[in-house]
Amino acid sequence: MENLDRIYDGAMAVLGKGFGVESRLWPLYLLLMVVIAAVLFLRRRPGGSFWAWLFPKSVYLHASHIVDIKVFLVSRLLSAAGFFQVVFLGSWVATKIAAVLGGPTETPSSLNPLITGLLLLVVNDFGVYWVHRVHHETRTLWPFHSLHHSAEVMTPITVFRKHPVYDLISSFVRGLFIGTLQGVLLGLVVGEVAFVTVAGLNAGYFLFNMLGANLRHTHIWLSYGPVWERILISPAQHQIHHSLEPRHFNKNYGEVLAIWDWMFGTLYVPKGEEKLEFGLADAEGRRLAQRHDTLTNAMVVPILDSWKQLRRMLPSPARRDRTPGE
Q1: What is the pLDDT of residues 127-173, one digit of tens each?
Q2: Within 13 Å, how many C-alpha atoms sit on residue 172's CB side?
Q3: Nearest to 261 by CA among 270, 272, 250
């Protein structure tokens, strides 16, 4: 009986990580995705059944989507086991920085939770931008992110098509960034940050998910328009990030905010709806062979590819054995 309880608790932990309020697959977010899609369907009138347009068999029965589901289950198991722990690292960094700063010199002021949450969201998003960009532009790290881009069709599950090494690095960096800001706030401004972290940061991502974040990894085009797409990354802009087209190569790294792409020269704002194909391609747009076609390959191939790139960077034994001047 005790073993069954453990299995049940473990299953609930996995489901909570996969479908809870912190996940894009929370039922309310999925329901809003359907509502937004219905509005788009009525405006565009593509013909045929709404449900067939929203959930085409060619996408949801595609081999790439089956791999998405398997990687999703693995990532949720690792997450439930605490493999991607941001809270502990962030709290540790915050405590150390607050100690260095000596704490508030006066009676702690009470910052508006939404203001503090906005600051935390901006800092977290800045970290996500650079983790994403560095993985694209570093040969030894790209293999771990290439798994995500190897998706040939996209559904809301595709957001979880990430290698554990990528998630681990991302969690570590976000923990550092958030912990640093928390430490500054704790040491100079407020006496307690935990509540505003939950109320503010989560409120920001709640709004982000409400605005159609699940459409980012679908075939359905949703643009925010040329003005807002310089501030926020729209679902259309993220689909462009996955595109095979050379003009889309290494564009739109941002998750929530487009300001980092705008600031650092990687922003692409579409002038209208574009026809897109997804998957891996080189800088000239030539599609690359699918090498993540099974769960085993999805987990192992990135490690082997990264190791191969790392070995190329290391000096060869013959070169190490040569004495200076030879």
Answers
A1: 899 999 999 999 999 999 999 999 999 999 999 999 999 998 888 88
A2: 8
A3: 250
Token digits of residue 294: 């099974």
Mean local confidence (pLDDT), 165-183: 80
Q: Are 141 and 305 in contact (CB under 8 A)?
A: no
Question: What pLDDT, on a 0 to 100 scale, did the predictor assign at position 279?
Answer: 96
Burial of 49 (0-12, 13-18, 19+ CB in 10 A): exposed
CA distance 235 to 70: 24
Query: What's the whole-model pTM score?
Result: 0.83
Q: How far is CA 176 from CA 167, 168, 170, 173, 210, in A?
A: 14, 12, 10, 5, 27
Q: Report the C-alpha gap between 255 and 153 in whole angstroms.
A: 19
In 3-state terms, the chain is what percent helix, strand and coil (to 5)? Answer: 65, 0, 35
How many beta carbons lie within 10 A of that of residue 163, not counting itself? Answer: 25
Closest CA to 205 of 118, 123, 127, 128: 118
How many Å is the Cα radius of gyration of the chain?
Answer: 22
Provide the residue count of the chain: 326
